[in-house]
Amino acid sequence: MLTLFGARMGVACDVRGSAKVWYPPHLQMADRSLLADRVNCYNMAPISLGERALVSQGAHLCAGSHDIRTRDFQLIAKPIHIGADVWVAAEAFVGPGVEIGEGSVLGARAVAFKSLEPWGVYAGNPAQFVKRRVILGTAGDTSTPGDAGR
User: Fold this and answer.
1) Residues 6+ apart with CB under 8 A from 3
2) Residue 122 burial class via C-beta count within 10 angstroms: exposed 0-12, middle 13-18, buried 19 and up
3) Per residue in 12-42, is it b (16+ CB within 10 Å) or e — as a string?
4) What DSSP line would sit under 70-113, residue for residue?
5) Chain segment 70-86, per-residue pLDDT in tens
6) Given 3-state DSSP classes, what are the helix, strand and coil percentages for the chain, each rounded to the nearest 5?
7) How far apart are CA 90 and CA 110, in angstroms?
8) What is the pTM of this model?
9) What percent of the chain has pLDDT over 70?
């Protein structure tokens, strides 16, 4: 349905019925990405999700704010980019202009007003780096993608 209103959707994307998308032409979802139940996608500016990105229930993606220095609170809209293999956990908030690097995790109820580096785990308000995200391989092998050759 979103594609009928201008959203650009990859293969096997999933937008749950209770998710809200403010302006479909500003939504781009790569293959196998997901907006879960009760996600508020307030996309006054473009919001893009990379492949396999997961935005969990109740999260808020907010691409707009207001300039408090002006009497009329002039609108400020800045794009949000969520990289491939990112997880934005339950009820987290992502603010205008934030880029969440590939493979990162923004913990439950965390608040990101600044961009997050790839393959990091972030938590809190404001979101702070906690540790590197490590992917379990076969037979107990662990690695962080992008570490090959290091």
Assistant:
1) 9
2) buried
3) ebebeeebebbbbebbbbbebbbbbebbbbb
4) STT--EEE--EEE-TT-EE-TT-EE-TT-EE-TT-EE-TT-EES
5) 999 999 999 999 999 99
6) 5, 35, 55
7) 9
8) 0.89
9) 91
